[in-house]
UniProtKB/TrEMBL annotation:
GO cellular component entries: ribosome
The protein, known as: Large ribosomal subunit protein uL1
Coiled-coil portions: none
Source organism: Spirulina subsalsa FACHB-351
InterPro entries associated with the record: Ribosom_uL1_bac-type, Ribosomal_uL1, Ribosomal_uL1-like, Ribosomal_uL1/biogenesis, Ribosomal_uL1_3-a/b-sand, Ribosomal_uL1_CS
Amino acid sequence: MVKKISRRLQEALAKVEKRAYEPLEALNLLKETATAKFNETAEAHIRLGIDPKYTDQQLRTTVSFPKGTGQTVRVAVIARGEKVAEATNAGADIAGSEELIEEIQKGMMDFDLVIATPDMMPQVAKLGRLLGPRGLMPSPKAGTVTMDIAGAIDEFKAGKQEFRADRTGIVHVMFGKASFSPEDLLTNLKALQEVIDRNRPSGAKGRYWRSVYVSASMGPAIEVDINALRDLKLDAA
């Protein structure tokens, strides 16, 4: 059964040409095609020349968006002793020790991010089946296993985001809101590109960047000129 395309989406699709746009031009078009009745998310979908089934071709890291993400991040912290109080004082939405692990095992998932102290990781390992498929398992590489609880909470609340390439080598990242100015979206998109380049897997061979598309969460995909994005130099603001 063919799904009917709404008139709103048909009108948005009609505005997008089948070509690679200059980065700022693409982001202006993203805003123009964000016509839903709510503040849509700005998304980037990046195909890389990697095969994540090989360990030396996996990409998992974090990006700190200079202009934030426009989203409220609910942070859960698994720690013990004074670190629980530190987490609460630093703005964690939920904080606890073994009792929090038990709550999560029972199905409590009222959070978007989990931070844990290293000493709690043997217990947190029990949550692998629950947190792993959701991309929520704490990891040192992602900055979510740390003794600097307050610093980590501040960074993630301010716009730091973890991401990884999926099984097909595509990175899907939310990098702002459609209400952001095109210039702010570009600043965030450039930060994402630089992080992906800096963290190129050692086993990646040949052409690393294959395609970059941006879209509003309810809008059409808009291709971005990869070379123009990578060559772009932004003034430090």
